[in-house]
Structures are given as C-alpha cells and as structure tokens.
Sequence to fold (276 residues):
Amino acid sequence: MANAPRQTVMRSDLGRARGLGSAKSGTAHWWAERVTSIALVPLTLWFILAMFRLVAVPRDTVIAWAGNPINATLLLALVAITFHHMALGLQVVIEDYVHDEKTRMASLLAMKGLTALLAIASVVAVLKLALAG
Amino acid sequence: MTDVREAQFVGRTTDGRTVRRPLSPHLQIYKPQITSGLSIFHRITGCALSAGTLLLVWWLVAAATSDGAFATVSAVVHTWLGHLVLFGWTAALWYHFCAGIRHLAWDAGYGFELPQVHASGKLVLVATGVLTVLTWVIGLVVA
Fold:
C-alpha cells in the first residue's frame, strides 16, 4: 500500500466532495462566462462597425456620436459586459497558475479591483459624453 | 490531513481498496496539436485583450476629458507603433471572437468528432486572418 493516501479521514465521500467546491452554485461562473460571451457577439460587431466611422475623427464627432442614446446604451452594455467577461476569464487564469494561497488571493483581489475601476471609469466617461451631447 | 486537495487523489479500485490516483503527465510530455494549440491561444488572446481594454478606457476617458487629452490619444494611436498595437488588438479580438463561437458550439453539443474539431480549428484560423485583413482594409479606406 505504498500508494495509499496519507490521511485517515472519518468523513463521507459526499462531505469530502462538498469541501472541494460548491455543491449548488458550481456552474454559476461557467454559465456567466457563456452568457456574457453570447452578449458580446453582437456588441463586438456593432463596436467594430462604429469604430470604422470614429478612428480618425475630431473629438466633437465622438461626443455627438455618444450623445445618441442608442449608441450610449450599447456602449455602456459593451463596457459592462466586457469587463464582467474579462474578470471571469482572468480569475480562471490566476486560479490555474498562481499556486501559493496568499499570492493567489492577493492577485484575485487586485484583478477584481482593477477591472471594477476600469469598468467604472469607462461608465463615467460614457455618461459624461452622453449627457454633454 | 495536509492539503485539502489531497482528497482529490483518493480513489477506489474495483475490489474496494483506496489508492492514491496518478497525476496526469505535464504539458511538455504531449506532442503539440492544433487542438491544444488553439486552446492555449484562446487564453493568450483573452489576456492580451484584457490588456488592450486599457486602450479603450484611455480613449473613452480622454474623449470625456478635454481636446488636449483626446489629441494625445489620437497622436499615439496614429503612430506606426500605435497601428501595430491596434493591428495585434484586432487580430486577437477576431481570434477570440471566432474561437469563442467555436466553444459555444461545443457547449451546445455540436462538433465533437475529431475531424470536425480539426476542421473548425482551421476555419477559426482562416476566419481570423480574413476578418483581420478585411477590418484593416475597410478601416484604412474609410478613415
């Protein structure tokens, strides 16, 4: 029995499994990643089409474009869903590669904070553009 | 009990003995394949696009701030280095977009046969190339 596990655990298989992950909401992260990716398909296409007209225009044109409520709405949706999708993805990357528990927790918190700030900054910018126009 | 993850290695043989399950070989043992290659490239482009969002945020915030700030972003973007970064950003976006749709098809239960997996993988690469070039042709003609 050289390969036998070291621990002698007086716990049921179910109890052990429960300690290793959620028994109820385990698919929430996976599902959220899928839902955001589906939403990003049309939003990305819209954004690229919009950028064709905005790559080399003066600031006034950008403000006028963002002043259109439809553009502002789609831009806010794009920003919110992009950063949500990005945080979900980066979370998995960090969890996969950062093994030390403290470093992992610190990396996750830093990443979540940074993506939240970037999202908020974008929303403030879009709202300012939209309401100024 | 040392590490809680140790419990994941506990398995039972058919005759009921508990054994420590083997660890799968590390990445460098495997032959590089289009399946694994595209998979890791999906993750790499995802990380690259995350960094690329900084450009989007900068552009939005600058547009909301002042003419001067907006002029700075425009000047930086329209250098050759700026165009190179933007080109990489476009390519990464189209790759992640196409490979993401491939993943969604798998999630819906389609395309799991190996020939289909290889075909869809090649299709993703071709589509990425075509869409990236198309985006830049249109972008340079319109702009």
